[in-house]
């Protein structure tokens, strides 16, 4: 197991706190990645030809991985504009989804969309933080965090909150981007260290969330989860996203200043990130020491 150190991982590097995620999404306003609907994920590019297909494929993948059924009560944190909740409701018909999102503007837009579709009895959207949802203990069968846990302060606190929210046997599923390196030494590579610090700040990622897959899995186990699987799907996410940024002017336009910025990040920079699909479940019975 290897905790990340240095400028990216918080060793001798800068320790400026990141931009709060809600500010980032306020700046991005109601700009979404997809043309149809309002998805905000990088997409799962396993045969997808457009960003719309890829965003929906990511949501389908997460729903399938969670094994959503009509018996499930779901808590979905970081729901963006709730496009994913609308999709899962129509596709898998879970009993109820409670969404928790920290960006008030997104919650407002999402509620209006859900109401327009007459789904407010099935999808209950709330403003709040994934690390302190205020929901009761053991209130759901599934917790989902789709491309948002890297923002949480911290991801580890969210693991504890998810364990609290889940009924025994309940499932946690995350699609998550993790900055893992390179790990520039600020004394030897000051420019790279500075750029890494700026990237974490601008992407609203706390340094405490920077660690590789094996540490991620260990932190899930330490939070009391069983059956932990953390699989890298980076090759079905980043190359497709990078290609779409280069080739799809509509995507760049929709992203506004964020798109301008992202377009300038060279593909090599993506090597500093992993993208994982993580699954774990709460034990059926708790062991008491
Ligand atoms: C990249 S977007 C993904 C949105 C959506 N899951 C999707 O894939 O379309 C990240 C989302 O996480 C939300 N978020 C960030 N920090 C959060 C926190 N601490 N608690 C709840 N939501 C948070 C943001 O408001 C935003 O909606």
Short note summarizing the structure:
This protein is α/β, with parallel strands linked by helices. It has helices spanning about 5-10, 20-30, 50-65, 85-90, 105-115, 155-165, 190-200, 215-220, 240-245, 250-265, and strands at about 75, 95-100, 125, 140-145, 165-180, 225-230, 275-280. The two termini are about 25 Å apart.
Task: Describe how the helices and strands are arranged.
Elements: H1 6-9, H2 21-28, H3 51-66, E1 73-77, H4 83-92, E2 96-101, H5 104-116, E3 123-127, E4 140-146, H6 155-165, E5 166-179, H7 190-202, H8 213-222, E6 226-232, H9 238-247, H10 249-263, E7 273-281
Parallel strand pairs: 1-2, 1-4, 2-3, 4-5
Antiparallel strand pairs: 5-7, 6-7
This protein binds S-adenosylmethionine.
Architecture overview:
This protein is an alpha/beta fold and 289 residues long. The chain has a single domain (6-280), classed as Vaccinia Virus protein VP39 (Rossmann fold). Helices cover 38% and strands 18% of the residues. The chain has helices at 6-9, 21-28, 51-66, 83-92, 104-116, 155-165, 190-202, 213-222, 238-247, 249-263; strands at residues 73-77, 96-101, 123-127, 140-146, 166-179, 226-232, 273-281. The protein has a 7-stranded mixed beta sheet, with helices on both faces. α4 links the parallel β1 and β2. α3 packs across α4 and α9 crosses α10 (249-263). The structure holds S-adenosylmethionine (SAM). Residues 21, 25, 39-41, 77-80, 83-84, 100-103, 106, 129-131, 146-148, 151-152 line the site of S-adenosylmethionine.
Q: Tell me the name of the CATH class.
A: Alpha Beta
| Secondary-structure element order, N to C | HHHEHEHEEHEHHEHHE
Number of DSSP helical runs: 10
- Name the bound molecules: S-adenosylmethionine
- What structural category characterises the helix and strand content? alpha/beta
The largest sheet, given as strand count, sense and whether it forms a barrel, is: 7 strands, mixed
The domain tally reads: 1
Please name the fourth-level CATH homologous superfamily: Vaccinia Virus protein VP39
Query: How are strands sequenced across the largest beta sheet?
Result: 3-2-1-4-5-7-6
Shape, per Cα inertia axes: globular
Mean pLDDT: 87
Please provide the count of β strands.
7
**Which second-level CATH architecture applies?**
3-Layer(aba) Sandwich
| Proportion of residues in extended strands | 15-25%
Terminus-to-terminus distance: 26 Å
Percentage of residues in helical conformation: 25-40%
């Amino acid at each position: 197991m290897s905790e990340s150190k240095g400028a990216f991982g918080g060793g001798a590097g800068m320790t400026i706190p990141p931009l709060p995620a809600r500010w980032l999404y306020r700046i991005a306003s109601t700009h979404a990645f997809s043309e149809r609907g309002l998805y905000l994920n990088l997409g799962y590019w396993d045969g997808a030809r457009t960003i719309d297909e890829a965003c929906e494929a990511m949501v389908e993948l997460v729903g399938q991985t969670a094994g959503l059924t009509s018996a499930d009560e779901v808590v979905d944190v970081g729901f963006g504009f709730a496009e994913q909740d609308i999709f899962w409701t129509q596709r898998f018909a879970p009993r109820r989804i409670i969404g928790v999102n920290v960006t008030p503007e997104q919650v407002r837009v999402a509620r209006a969309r859900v109401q327009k579709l007459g789904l407010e009895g099935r999808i209950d959207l709330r403003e709040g933080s994934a690390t302190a949802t205020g929901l009761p203990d053991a209130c759901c069968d599934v917790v989902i965090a789709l491309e948002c846990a890297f923002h949480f302060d911290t991801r580890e606190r969210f693991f504890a909150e998810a364990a609290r929210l889940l009924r025994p046997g309940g499932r946690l599923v995350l699609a998550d981007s993790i900055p893992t390196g390179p790990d520039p030494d600020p004394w030897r590579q000051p420019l790279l260290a500075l750029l890494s610090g700026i990237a974490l700040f601008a992407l609203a990622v706390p340094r405490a969330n920077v660690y590789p897959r094996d540490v991620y899995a260990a932190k899930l186990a330490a939070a009391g989860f069983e059956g932990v699987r953390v699989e890298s799907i980076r090759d079905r996410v980043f190359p497709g996203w990078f290609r779409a940024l280069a080739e799809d002017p509509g995507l760049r336009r929709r992203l506004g200043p964020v798109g301008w910025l992202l377009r300038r990040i060279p593909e090599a920079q993506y090597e500093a990130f992993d993208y994982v699909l993580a699954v774990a479940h709460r034990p059926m019975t708790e062991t008491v020491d």
